[in-house]
Design brief:
223 residues, mainly alpha, three-stranded mixed sheet, 5 helices, two-stranded antiparallel sheet, 5 strands
Length: 223
């Protein structure tokens, strides 16, 4: 029996390969040392972070998608407001000295800030910047509070308008339905959720430019 040993790396584990020799009853062994622990490509590693909603996509992708959707709605809303046309007030102009002046002024400012925050969050997710994603998330909470307050301002403006047209002969009363307030809160939480998940994973080191090939996931857009 003949044994041939070749040492390639001093401290690496050895793997012994046994092969059958041509001569019956004789066995030859060759001992070769190969490097162990070779790094696995990042994209082939198992995902460590969570998936948005448990099955949808990674949080970076979720932040980008959510803010694109919000940006589209904010731009559409802004166009309607500055054009002075809404479902309830019909044709309107800020020069009319109407009771709706305060309501529309708040709407315009809120929508402008929201558009800027949408863009900020998208860029923040692309750049893995925690601050640029966290600030918009905080703004969405502030926006919700402003929207609820502005709804009461709208009701007050509507009541004033009715009283101006019909005097005290009409008892004008406008209320903000609790269902709308609760629904708005639920929607706000849903929009904030991916931002929080993204910030958490980036701060933990799970999500970064280097690890994203491992963390990337989509239920329909990634092969």
């Amino acid at each position: 029996m003949a044994t041939v040993s070749s040492k390639i790396y001093q401290d690496q584990p050895t793997i012994t390969a046994v092969t059958a020799a041509p001569v019956k009853g004789a066995v030859s062994t060759t001992t070769t040392t190969i490097p162990a622990g070779a790094p696995v490509p990042m994209m082939e590693q198992e995902k460590m972070g969570n998936k948005c909603c448990g099955c949808c996509c990674d949080f970076r992708r979720a932040v980008i998608i959510c803010n694109i959707i919000l940006l589209v709605f904010a731009v559409i809303g802004f166009i309607f407001v500055i054009s002075g046309r809404t479902v309830d007030t019909g044709s309107y102009s800020l020069d009319d000295d109407s009771a709706y002046d305060t309501y529309f002024a708040i709407e315009i400012v809120t929508l402008v800030v929201t558009i800027l925050m949408n863009i900020c969050a998208i860029l923040g997710a692309i750049k893995y910047n925690v601050g640029m994603v966290l600030v918009p998330a905080i703004w969405y909470v502030v926006e919700y509070i402003i929207s609820v307050a502005n709804a009461f301002i709208y009701c007050s403006a509507w009541e004033d308008e009715i009283e101006e047209k019909h005097g005290n002969y009409v008892d004008a009363e406008c209320n903000v339905p609790p269902g709308i307030v609760i629904t708005g809160l639920a929607i706000t939480i849903i929009w904030i959720y991916p931002h929080v998940g993204f910030v958490k994973e980036v701060k933990a080191g799970t999500m970064s430019e280097e690890t994203y090939p491992r963390e990337e996931f989509s239920c329909c857009c990634v092969a």
